[in-house]
Write a structure and sequence with these properties.
four-stranded parallel β-sheet, EC 2.5.1.72, Rossmann fold, 3 domains, globular, 15 helices, binds (~{Z})-2-methylbut-2-enedioic acid, alpha/beta, 12 strands, iron, 4Fe-4S, Quinolinate synthase
Amino acid sequence: IDPAVKLVEEINRLKKEKNAVILSHFYVDGPLQDIADYVGDSLGLAQAAANTEAEMIVFVGVHFMAETAKIINPNKKVILPDLKASCSLAESAPADKFAAFKAQYPDHKVITYINATAALKTMTDIVCTSANAKQIVESFPKDQKLIFAPDKNLGGYINSITGREMVLWDGACMVHEQYSVEKIIDLMDKNTDAEFIAHPECEKPVLLLAKHIGSTTALLNYVQKSEAKKFIVATESGILHQMTKACPDKIFIPAPSVDSTCGCNDCEYMKLNSLQKLYICLKHELPEVTLPADVIEKARIPIQRMLEISK
Ligand code: CIZ
């Protein structure tokens, strides 16, 4: 890219020229959140994708999110800045292995966390996000047997608050599995005025320490409501950008990981996005997310069911 190119200006110009909408996830870097038409969590972004009148969707997040936007909008062009922006949760549940797993439970319905491939969604009764997982699970009668995939930590947490005994697929998010209980306790001891808040993708010992557990949107709402002035936050560090914007006078400390040298609070896939890549992607309308028509047709059903329930 010519260093003289003013990226933000150019991105905004191209977006207008091409009638595109930019949807950014809470976990991408601050400037990529600030340039978006809509910034949010997977549920909000799926809703925004369902409601947009733009001709092209630029998804600044990870691949499964762009796939979801494509499934909802099969006739629109959906592009994302880096096709390699994957998700450890989505990768943890390959479709063939999941099909064999599901076959062992023929009388179970399948709830799939949105952090999954389109192929997995074709084998699903309903999709959920962390913002609506409890509501989606409770939309089934109590005696309905359920499989929850792919996040065992979120599934286990929902089991614990609903009293259900969903069968859990053995998947996890590599960012949320990295937190160190010992270091969090140490940090809490040193910051007794701070509240520790955590995302339900964290492991149970971490969740047991938390004053509040919730999706990114729920955590963001919580820090605005709480009287506390300081928070230790156990989720991907991108959300701190919105928290700081919403509460400039409060202090947000990223929860420490087991290996503090690895920058584990960052999702390496989310962080593949950059303003440069966004500019190139908009300019050349590449890379594009495409899916076979039969996958779109089958995967749309459980996503639409979720959107109906979450209106
Ligand atoms: O649902 C999402 O977007 C994710 C990955 C986390 C959250 O809680 O928002």
